[in-house]
Amino acid sequence: MLRVLSHVGRLEAITLPDDLVSRVEIIAIPSTGELDDGVTGEVLLSTPTVMPNLEHVLSRGVRWAHLIGTGIDSFPLDLIGDDCILTNSRGLSAMPISEWVLACMLAFEKRMPGSWITEPPKAWNIPSPGFGTLHGGTLALLGIGGIGTAIAERARPFGMTIKAMRYSDAPSPLDYVQLVSSIDELVDGADHVVLVAPLTDATRGLFDDRVFDLMKPGVHFVNVARGPMVVEDALRRALDSGIVACASIDAPDPEPAPAGHWMYDHPGVRLSPHSSWNWPGAFPAMFEMFIENLRRYLDDEPLLSVVNPADGY
User: Of 9-23, 95-109, 255-269, where does mean pLDDT reach its minimum?
Assistant: First the structure.
C-alpha cells in the first residue's frame, strides 16, 4: 500500500480509479505544525503555495512530491533534495487559458464591449472606430509549452502567423510556429504579444522600456503568466505613449493588486483576478496528472511533468 501525505485533504471530490483504490492510502495532514510520531509517507500531494511545515513533512520519507498547480515560482525548490522527485500539473489549464487569451484578442480587435450600443448610433453598419481582425496578424508567444501550444492551435484557424520563443533547445511542437532566439525577434512586428512562460531569473523583468520600445505601435499585450515578468512602470509608459493599445492582464504584480493600484482605472488595461484558468472541470483536472503519475509510480514508470529545480520549472 502506497501512502500519500496530502496537504489538500483526502480527495473526497476525486474518485480514484478502481486499479488504484487497493494500492493507495491517502492521509490528510495539516499545513502547520509537526506530524504525529509514526506518520510517514513516500508521496506528498501539496500546492505551489508554501506550507509552513513543508520541510518537516518532506523529512517523513517523501520520495516524490506532486504540486496541484502549474506555476511554482513561490515554491521553495531548495527543499527538494536529490533523493526526491518533484512534479506538477503542468498543462492542466491549457484549454481554458487558451480560450481566455483568444477571447481577449477577439475582444480587442472587435472593440468589445465598446462596440455594443444602447441607443441609435451616428452611423449604422459602420463602427467607429473600425474593427480589426486576427486574420493576417502576427501572434508572438513567450513560451510554447502546453498553454502556448493550445493558444497557437486556436489562433491558427484565424489565419494568424505565429512565432514563439522558449528557453530550451526543444523544437517547435507545431510545424507552423516559428521559433525565434531573442526577445527582440519575438516582439518585432507582432500584433499580439502573449506571455505564457514560467517566472525564472531569465524572464523576471524581461519586459522593460527597451523591449516595449521595440514593439509595433498599437500592439495588444497579454499576460497570463506572472506579473514580475513585466516592469509595470514601463508598461504604463508604453500604454500612455500608444505603443501598447491595450493590456489584458490576468497576473499583475503584486497579486492580488491592492486598492488604488493604477491598473484598476487605466483606460488601456483590462484587468482580471488571475482567473483565466477557471472552467467547470477545473478542480477535477488539477488531480488528473497526479492520478496518472500515481499509476506510473506504482508501476515503476517515468513520471510526467517532472520539475527541474535548477531551471525553476
Answer: 9-23
